[in-house]
Hints:
- The structure holds 2 protein chains of 2 kinds.
- By secondary structure, chain A is α+β, with helices and mostly antiparallel strands.
- Chain A folds into 4 domains: 3-76 and 115-189, no CATH class; 202-278; 283-402, Heat Shock Protein 90; 415-497.
- Chain A contains 18 helices and 7 strands.
- Chain A has helices spanning 3-38, 45-67, 101-114, 116-127, 132-136, 138-145, 147-151, 158-187, 191-245, 250-278, 281-286, 288-298, 315-334, 370-380, 415-427, 429-445, 454-457, 460-497, and strands spanning 90-92, 95-97, 302-307, 340-348, 351-358, 384-389, 396-402.
- A 5-stranded mixed beta sheet of chain A has the order 3-4-5-7-6, covered by helices on one side. In chain A, strands 1-2 form a two-stranded antiparallel sheet.
- In chain A, strand 4 (340-348) and strand 5 (351-358) form a beta hairpin.
- The longest helix of chain A has 55 residues, at 191-245.
- Chain A is flat.
- By secondary structure, chain B is α/β, with parallel strands linked by helices.
- Chain B folds into 2 domains: 2-130, Rossmann fold; 135-214, Winged helix-like DNA-binding domain superfamily/Winged helix DNA-binding domain (Arc Repressor Mutant, subunit A), CATH 1.10.10.
- Chain B is built from 11 helices and 6 strands.
- A 6-stranded parallel beta sheet of chain B has the order 2-1-3-4-5-6, with helices on both faces.
- Chains A and B meet through helix 10, helix 11, helix 12 and strand 3 of A and helix 4 and helix 6 of B.
- Chain B: It comes from Microtetraspora glauca.
- Chain B: Keywords: DNA-binding, Phosphoprotein, Transcription, Transcription regulation.
- Chain B: It holds the Pfam family Response_reg.
Amino acid sequence: MNRRTLTALARGAGLLGMAVLGQLVGLVMLVAIALSFLIGLVFVFSPAVRLTRATTRLQRRLAAEWSGVTIDEPYRPAPPPPQRQRDGWYREGRNLYKTPRVPAFNRRLSWLVNDPATWRDFAYLMVSPWSSGLIVGIPLLLAVTGVPQLVDGNLAGLLPLVVALVTAPAVAPWSVHVHGQIAHALLAPTEKARLAQRVSHLARTRIDAVDSQAAELRRIERDLHDGAQARLVAIGMTIGAAEQLIDSDPAAAKALLAKASEASATALRELRQVVRGIHPPVLAERGLGDAVRALALDTPLTSHVTVDLPNRPDAPVESAAYFAVSELLTNAVRHGDATEVWIDISHQGTALRVTVTDDGRGGADPERGTGLRGIERRLAAFDGVLAVNSPVGGPTTAAFELTRALEETIPSLPRWKRTILGLCWGLCWLPLFPQGLVAMVMKLVGSPERSWFLALYLPEPLQWPVIIGMICLGGVMLATGVTLANQAKRAKVDACASS
Amino acid sequence: MRVVIAEDLHLLREGLVALLHAHGFEVVAAVESGPELLTAMLRERPDVAVVDVRLPPTFTDEGLQAALAARREIPGLPVLVLSQHVEQLYARELLADGSGGVGYLLKDRVFNAGQFIDAVRRVADGGTAMDPEVIAKLLASNARSEPVGRLTPREREVLELMAEGRSNAAIGQRLFLSDSAVGKHTANIFTKLELAPSDDDNRRVLAVLTFLNGKQAP
């Protein structure tokens, strides 16, 4: 009995215990349902649901840690708290309330009652002891069946125990896994719930994206209005004045023109700043890798940049990643007192992964820093996630990942394999049919016609071996073709699945 | 002096041709795309090429790539690169082969014809002409490095002008210093940065730029 089996047995026992506990919680929930909907004691419903959810949450965690089955939370997002109206009342439907307590309670109740996940949780708790609980308890229950006989002094009672022990290495890990699968069936979000979650996530990130876009546009408008535009007006006026003066006072006109030329240089400088803020030229010219290198060169930190990208991501993704790195570097310089920074840009499948590590004093908190919040919002529009690890005293590591950022690079078969595939597919019929099977039929029938069947021209003792050989060759070519084609298809499916 | 010009904006190209012509340059080719530029440079082997970074067909860094490719074919071929924006990254790439004869300026510098022509001549003679903005960025990213921190403000000014590629005489003129004073400052700078002194202006500038660039790991 090895370690793995023992772990599986222990986990099985734990899960069985959980199932029994779940059953008790389920009964509490049943009572709560009866109280709420039969005699209207609705206030017991919410705590009961909270208890159920705590239990199923634990079940989900165990499924992930013990059975290796990841189960996402299926719950709908909690309703927003009621908003106080301008007249100081809280409106819920057609009713007005003085305090937010009642409308908040109503919203919460209807959220819990209407969420299918509430009822699926309940169903799971009621059903699990009788399904997955039994399966996971097989070794234990089997061993226990012999106990009454043993108590009677009958040694036959040892038999189930022996069977349980012998089968345990196979049964125990399997049962734990099956338990996870069954839990997944009821505890995982339904397709509908998953879509609903996705939609609400998309709606939120879309609002964020639109908001930040609008803010950007406002900033650009302001920069142009106060900067370059104003300067151009001034230049125009200066040149106009110079025009007036050029005959009467050439020296003054010349001075004015010099001023205009200076102002135009300033305007250009400001325009460059604005352009840099919209879409940095290096990014457009060289892509993310070199743009980040250029960025790193411009910081006062000693920087180490490594880039490993198979191709250029889409422009918006590139831009989001660039500005995120830019913000992280700014943070490192401004708040972290860093002197050295390591930037790593890599890819995994179609995901773009960027890590920025600095040797500053750490203590960055995404909850407080608006900069980090801004990066998160920017990345969220592309389903990106930011993780910051910044213990006080440093070092700070910020990593973000943008899924589906890169085009899928489907690994195609190497050239020689493709050639073989083509040859096999193209030519397998030749040895198989005319030279093999048809020649065999001709031979069997004893037809005098030899046509172009190679084998029939050979001396008699070689004829059968050649025919059989031809059929085998054709068969092997066909099989090779099918295998290689399958290989190519699988590579394609893998590439798609990893995205 | 024979010049090749690459610039995709018609007005600006004509302006450059007229400007260089007026200052006694012979414009042997004025092209508007990267591939044309490369063939023109290899065919004409000009004394200097004035190149815009962003050119058709891709409108990325076509001009820079063509210039670098031409310099790989003809080492030391003088190239003055013009751009709407300056990047340390590009400056490093231009300086990487260490053979001089490169310039990297903002397009705005064309406004000041005298200084621009001066820069073209300097590059044609195998010197360098770096935009003050590049140098400012270089110095900013070196600001925390120890040797640069030890320079006096005056020495920093001299270093800036020297890194732009100016000769001692030009630096003296700019800062209202005598030649011997400039010489003293440059000697101090070289001691503080622990660089081997050199009488040759161009070598000196390259040494300084290499030093400033060397502070950052690639």
